[in-house]
Amino acid sequence: MIVATYSIAACDLEASQWGVVVQSKFLAVGSVVPWAEPHVGAVATQAYANARYGPDGLALLRDDVPAAEVVRRLVDADDGRDERQVGIVDRHGGSASYTGSACLDWAGHRNGAGYAAQGNILVGAETVDALAETFESSAGKPLAERLVDCLAAAQAAGGDRRGQQSASLLIVERDGGYARLSDVVVDLRVDDHPRPIDELRRLHGLHNQLFGVTPREDWLPLAGELRNEVDTRLATLGYTSLDAWAGVANLEDRVEGDAEIDPVVLEALREETA
After folding, report:
1. Which phi and psi angles does 247 have, rounded to 5°?
2. Which of 104, 103, 107 is nearest to 118 (CA)?
3. Which of 82, 25, 22 is nearest to 54 (CA)?
4. CA 2, 98, 11, 162: dihedral to nearest 10 degrees?
């Protein structure tokens, strides 16, 4: 089955993050296309996808083989190369893509510093251009946010000419994930949805609420009227401490001590007791 798709594999070297975002008229595209490893690189394999391009590409990148050489080796060893499409970013931000001659129109790619953008069965080149230009113009924003914006811009420019079905966002960073014990910062998948990019953005917002970090200087002192408000709201829910409620609400990573409160936690508490 052809994974008709548009995707961008990219990195933020300053943040030490690598990732892939993808959308397709294909069920559960996140189970096939995106691969990434921190301080190694990212791979997007699609069209009549060769899923071995993911682990095999990362193995080569792990040995510090440049992205362009990784693409060359993968493609040269593949008898089905004419139907493949792949984009790769290496640990240094080098990038390369390949679009086989038998990929269905429109199919093509575009590369730049820190990104590889590609797509097949698209309305036109405008979709890949939107991926590239959105990434290039969004430096300084978090990588996950940039990639979701890239996907939305590509859809607005035409997208997959068969329509939408699924989308996926994968971001990795060494010890940057859950409890700082995982390398997976974000792994969100919309497997079957009429507007998968909108749903992916909603899920990413929820992910930020649960796992994001508010600078400590932006936390609020838990004293006076605010202290009374928080205690009253907790009592309404049947809790005697902020820690106890936060654990049930999956906000435990945003609670530290009892002297200050993260504004995100306060907002969630207010919403639950409104």
Report:
1. -65, -40
2. 107
3. 22
4. -30
Instruction: Note the pTM of the prediction, 2 decimals.
Output: 0.91
Domains (ranges, CATH) in the chain?
A: 5-193 (3.60.20.10), 216-272 (no CATH)
Q: Which of 46, 51, 185 is nearest to 116 (CA)?
A: 46
Per-residue pLDDT of the chain (274 residues; tens, 9 = 90+): 566 689 999 999 999 999 999 999 999 999 999 999 999 999 999 999 999 999 999 999 999 999 999 999 999 999 999 999 999 999 999 999 999 999 999 999 999 999 999 999 999 999 999 999 999 999 999 999 999 999 999 999 999 888 999 999 999 999 999 888 999 999 999 999 999 999 999 999 999 998 888 999 999 999 999 999 999 999 999 999 999 999 999 999 899 988 999 999 999 999 999 9
Bridging pattern class, strands 84-90 and 108-112:
unpaired
Nearest to 112 by CA among 88, 87, 132: 132
